[in-house]
Amino acid sequence: MSVAPRVLTAALALLPSLAAAQAGETARAVAAGPQYANPPLPESLLGRSYRNLWTTPVSVPVLDLGGYAGGLTPTGTGGGNQTESIRFRGANGRNYSFRLVNKNQTRGQSPDIRGTLVGEVIQDQVSSLHPAAALVADPLLAAAGVLYVPPGLYVLPASGLPQEHGAFHGRLGLLEERPRAGNSEVPGIAAANDIEDTKDFLKALESGAAHRLDTRDYLAGRLMD
After folding, report:
1. Helix/strand/coil percentages in the chain, nearest 5
2. N or C: which end of the chain has fewer CB within 10 A?
3. pLDDT of 88-131, one tens digit each?
């Protein structure tokens, strides 16, 4: 075994204590992806990946929808081709996103693949990702001087969300602030004059020499990514 898997395995073993330190909420034992214990094809073909980490229950605090940030109100859902998320507005005026740890690979699959063995194999490969990678990356990003939004690992309560968001009940995910310039407590980001999404950022770069990229910061970010 190489050093890296040992470090990541140890990091996941610390999750109960990390989670308990995040909040004094009621905790629940939950596995990130119990379905990965039974791959659609033999492990000799698909590999062991991090199946043991996906299927091991850990104690995680239940997100207090009524107390966190003064109270969280769901405002909609989001996510790309893999990650499902629910967005919240806090009573403190800040926005948050709860991103499910377990990816949904069917969102990016063509209809002729969904529900087939090929689709199952693609979904199973989520087990090759480390379920706690975001928590492991935090101290590394901080050491490299890369701005980031620190996530917290939580499980959503079994009830309390509107009916249209019921599929998120009891799910394990990462809660993080969606920062806006001048309205954030995230270190570094809180002092930003403006925050742009990728599309607007690239558009500004292409508009002329008035907008320049900090190449050192960009390289540090890409190397960490």
Report:
1. 40, 20, 40
2. N
3. 999 999 999 999 999 988 777 778 888 899 889 989 999 999 99
Distance CA 119, CA 133 (A): 24
Tokens representing 223 are 């190397």
Helical pair 3-13 and 15-22, crossing angle rounded to 10 deg? 40
d(CA 152, CA 18): 9
78 within 8 A of 97, measured Cβ to Cβ: yes
Do residues 5 and 23 lie in contact, with contact meaning Cβ atoms separated by under 8 Å? Answer: no
Q: Are 96 and 69 in contact (CB under 8 A)?
A: yes
Asked if 9 contacts 53 with a C-beta cutoff of 8 angstroms, the reply is: yes
pLDDT class of 5 with cuts at 50, 70, 90:
very low
CB 156 within 8 A of CB 71: no
CA atoms of 5 and 122, how far apart (whole Å)? 22
The Cα 14–Cα 23 span in angstroms is: 15
- Check: pTM over 0.90? Answer yes or no: no
Q: Which residues pair with 54 in a beta bridge?
A: none
Distance, CA of 38 to CA of 46 (rounded, Å): 11
How far, in Å, CA of 167 to CA of 175, rounded? 17
